[in-house]
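[Meeting: bench + compute handoff]

Bench side (C.D.) handed over the final construct sequence. Compute side (W.E.) agreed to return the predicted structure before the next meeting so the bench team could plan truncations. Sequence as handed over:
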Amino acid sequence: MRFLVYLLAFGAFVVSLALTTMLKRVALSTGLIDVPNERSSHSVPVPRGGGLAIVISSVAAMGLLAGLGEIPIPLALALCGGGVAVAAVGFLDDRGSLSPGKRLLVHFAAAAWATAWVGHASELRVGVEVIRLGVAGYAISAIGIVWFLNIFNFMDGIDGIAASEAIFICGAAVLLSGHSGGGDIATAAAAIGAATVGFIVWNWPPARIFMGDVGSGYLGFVIAVLALADDARNPSALWTWLILAGVFVVDSTITLIGRMLRRQQITVAHRTHAYQHLARKAGHATVTTWVAVVNVVWLLPCALFSTVRPAYAFLLALLALCPLGVSAIVAGAGQPEAARRGHAGGVS
């Protein structure tokens, strides 16, 4: 990447760091505090809404990069326009709970906006076969974006985990761009990742501020749009991005299935993700660190190989995610807390 890109990414980091510091003070003075309850994974009141710093700094950086010709205008409009809409509804939800219907309406509108600018997933490569999705690709793309941004929201339940995941995925996108040829995607990812680094300084365990829905929804959205933009050019890219986001995808999906099988309301906050069960035993810092280790040691090499050998991308995705699925089930993804306590104590 060019020196200018690195310079603006560094600027996004500095602005995000400064804004997070300021937002922490504003949240304390205005009462924007996350007070612990029976569904919380923290035990002391913590300011929230710090993800706004990521939104402001990364959108500003991407706007400048687009103006200077480093990012295509359609990609910048998809990321910034839809991202700001998702962040806005997240901010309103942080201030006072919104109904799931209203949030989803904005999420789907933002997803439709993104697909209008960067295109939809028209093809999907499975081994040597390329499946043409046709018109169904529009619906699949929009649903995929909404699904992933909500996954990021679901997984933002312990200190540092969502921010570190976003940093990993964005950093991996920069590293893998040399093989995939997605220089514009790498440029946007650098700005988003750098802004998130500025935030995680305050969010690493023990967190002194939470990102809130304003940040988690935004990060999930922009990462999903980057994946879509990459897949619109390369029908095997979807598997690479799925590998990179494997921990979040697997834990959330298995937890959701478990809650649905138990006929539990899936829109109600809970503490039944695998990472939440583990955090109660080992602590936030340990679980967040181990997720980062799994990302770097296991998922990144699988993603790299899927980029170099696209014919094997689908099989590599299965190889990468299956062990995570087994681990999530063993850790209790989707199981009620009482059931996990009983299992740990030998109660049948």
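W.E. noted at the follow-up: Residues 79 and 225 are 7 Å apart (CA to CA). C.D. will use this when planning the next construct.
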